[in-house]
Structure formats: C-alpha cells, structure tokens
Fold:
Amino acid sequence: MTDAAVQTTAESTAAARAIAGARRIVVKIGSSLVVDAKTRAPSADWLEALAADIAALRAGGREVAVVSSGAVALGRGRLKLAKNARLDEKQAAAAVGQSLLMRGWEAAFQPHGLTPAQVLLTRDDTERRRRWLNARATLEALLTLGAVPVINENDTVATEELRYGDNDRLAARAAQLIRADLLILLSDVDGLYTADPRRDPTAEHLPLIEALTPEIMALGGGANAEADVGTGGMATKLMAARIARSAGCATLIVSGLQPHPLEAVRDGARATLFTAPATPLAAYKQWIAGSLEPTGALVIDDGAAAALVKGRSLLPSGVARIEGRFDKGDSVRLQTLDGAVLGVGLAAYAADEMARIQGRHSTEIEALVGYKGAGVAVHRDDLVLEAP
Structure:
C-alpha cells in the first residue's frame, strides 16, 4: 500500500466508524448526481449502486432515510425549460418531475425488496410544532414499517419566501426530525478542503472537524456555478452540518461521483466528518427544556409522578387537572397535586382533547377524541424532568 493510500485510510477511519456506529442515517443526494446531465433522465446505474449501499446498511440493522433532489431538474428536461425558468414554471417542472424521480427510486430499490415512500415537505412542516410532530410521526411509522422515506421539498406549492432554498438544509432538518445519528451529504467533492481543490492544487483535505468555528465556516464557497442541474455548494453543506450538529447529529461530506459511495467510505475512501457534541435525544431534550415557553400545565397524581421518575411516559389516567390553553405539540409544565413542578413536556393532545381523556385509560382515547392518536398524554421522549 502506498503512503498516500495509507494516509487516506487513516484519515477516513473516523468516517467509517461514524457509519458503523450510526443507528439512523439520512443520506442526501443532489440533482447533479441523480439526473444524467446528457439525457435529463434519472441516472439509473448510479441510483442502483447507491440503493445497494442503502440495502447493505439496512441489512446491518440501520434505518435509512433519503433526501433526494432532482424533481425540478427532471421536469425541466421533460418540459424543455431553461434553468432560469420563472417560479411558476419551476413549480410546474416539480409536478412533472416528482413522478419521474420516484420512478427512478422505485426501480433502484426493487431488486433489494425495499419500498421507497415519497415524503414532500415545506419549511412549515419542520418549523411549526404541530406540523413537525405530524411529520415526525409519519416518518417514524415509515421507518418502523421498513420503508425507505424519499424526502424532497414540495416545490410544486412552496413559494420563494417559504422554501428551504436547498436540499442540504432540508436534509439537516429531516435529520433533526427523525433524530438521526448521522447525516451523509453526497457531493461532487470528497469533503472539505482549505481551498477549492478544483482550482487550487495546494488545497489540503480536512478529514475531521470537531468545531464549526468562523474560520471553518469561511471555507465554504458559493454554489457550484459549473453545475447545470444543482443549486447547492460547500457553504450550504456547512450550514447543514451546523443545523445537524445542534441536534446531536454528526455529518459526513462524501464524494458521490463514484459508484457505491457509502461502501467506498466504509472501505477507506476520503471524506470529512463533522462530529456532534451530544446524542440526538439529549440535544432534543435540551431544546424542550430551554427553548420553549410552557403555555399550560398538566397536574398529575402521585402514581403518575412516580412513573415519570422511573423514565416512563405520562398516561392520561394519571392526569388529574388541566391548566391553561394549549395545542398539540405545545410545551406544558408537569406539576404534582401540591403544585411542585416536575418538569416540562410536549402535549400529545390539545387542551380540549386532554380534558376529555384525563383520568381515562389509554384504550378509551380514540372513542373520546374521535381518532387514533398517541396512547399517552406526554411521551417520555418528549419530556424533561427537573434535576432533584
């Protein structure tokens, strides 16, 4: 093995370990990889190779979601539109291209017995708590059922002021949404460099980033002007890494120009790993504890209080009284009968629904509220207890 090969393997060890140790992974693919620049059709061979990589991860016990660009580019090709098309033309292209994109993923996953599931999101779906909870529940159900969510921005209806703007940012929000351990951004370069390696032969590869300092963020350039179908660049990937990091999710920037890009990283190919300082669940609970102002309170009985201390969810049977007005997903205080605050949590039901189910058994919820929702008042993953 040459010195260069030894160095590459040593540098990528952290990246390979990150993939091996992840429980839940989001893989983001840009338009320039998904769409064949000449035919303007899905890159079938490349998609099949990536699908094989994802199938291998699934076989190893990992859950995988995909964030896939390409709908607008595919639709533009079918409608013969220029890249600088008007917003309404881009939305029309997205409507045409989304079915072409999913057809490509369906063909790629079919040999592996995997079912892709189309999920279209707008920014409101990850920034408004009620819609965030609904989106999270859908994605959790898909992963539990063994499907592979294929997530894209809902470009058909998203307006410029309500768009993510790039799928790197969407991928980071999706990683937050499903509490992923690892976000993998497939790019046209094999990681972060001290300069653009396509223009500066002295640029040095940075294999491991443990802090997103202003100096590191400054290394991101603009969008790749040479790409005819994509919109993202290194700057958007660094912003995505920052968002993911705040949610306890590590990020890998990997070259997607080779077949089987995920297998290549596991085998020692060069990449850049951005570490995260906490686990996804710890980061999520920190957000609940410190970023949300409670809008009401659930007063709970002694049995429920004891169950919470043991790490269990709050069941409606343990709710003795409801205070204030709140919606599903709002933060509420959890109080004992004598007024002591145990902690805070996200309500699984709005105040009026909670009033109907308080003190009742979980099996009665559907009949009382009219739909089959969560079997708890506050899930244990959505609550934080105050330190004793």
Notes: The chain has a mean pLDDT of 88.
